Fold this protein.
Amino acid sequence: MRGDLNNPKTFSRELDALLKKINNDATHENFISSIFVELEQNFGKDLNIVDGCIYDLRDKEFVKIYSLNENQWSKKIQLNSPAIQKVIKHGSYIFNDIGLRSYFDLADDVHNITPAAITINTPERQLLLVFALLDGWIREEISLFLNAVRMALTFRLFSDIMDSELQQAVQIQKSLLPRSAPKIKGYDIYGKSIPATLVGGDFYEYFEPEEGNFGISIGDASGHGLPAALLVRDVVIGLRMGLASEYKLAYTVKKLNHVIQQSTYASNFVSLFLAEIENNGHCFYVNAGHPAPFLVQGDKITDLEATGMVLGFLKNIQIQRSYVRLQPGEVMVMYTDGIIERIDSEGSLFELNRLKDIVLKHQHKSSAEISEIIFQTVYTWGASTNWEDDATVVVMKRL
């Protein structure tokens, strides 16, 4: 053992610091090469590392993109070469064999140098990091070091890609949710949705199919996260296409059921409430297994129960259209189960009755005020902790 390796605790501490740096430092164009330089500077003496280079897989060959010393190392190495295949198979490899060493084109007079390599694989690229070891290296030390670095870099690059993809999904989902409610004469409308994770399975949408009519939908795709969000995308697009074609409500929902049936995502069923409202208060709706919206006027509450089962379970479903007349001053509240199933510190559900009590008490207020009171009350009920389920509320009031 040499240098700090005489003190395993010191070496372990320094290696741990390097791995944390790989995990925490901001990535940039030269991130890999900067880490590579730091590896050689901080561990070169202890591990007998004196040189190295980085290759990037392009088509069927690894091309050198960086090296500490330009006077050695091959500019290109074929992907199918025995040396590369050894690294790919094992993840890391120390090239004791002179024949394999020759693929790296080290100078013939450099007999005391042994190449050691690791592969860094992501969905977007494959890198090869090669180190030159002076005589005196110890296999166990080098293997430990190489594999720790390989795992840390691979995890970090994967995380960056996933974060980027997830942020794209966030933006896609934000683009699907309405930025604001439509201005409909005689109506006050407000909607809000809070996903439990960056993206979720709740959605709501407004439609204005023709002058004098408008529509509202609210739904909940099973599951959470990216699979549910992808299904939401298909559902919202399907609704927009169906209603833009002036299909009847029940027909649109049946066609949408076929879209969900063909989905390959982990989330494979959706509850949906879809209403078409005329300016004079006539409201036609279908409720495919969604928690029943309710109407409040004075001390009267009317539930808009399901008119069919949730979408996605069966290829052919029966769904009926129903009707209700919205009276002036009446409030319609649509919600998802993340609201009524939020749990307090003692394990009790918020439940539908408490939601109805809020609306009864505050029905004279605007739709936005009612919605915000609901969210604040339910959030507090859950001890002001993170939402465990996606939560959505749409409030519509006939003025």
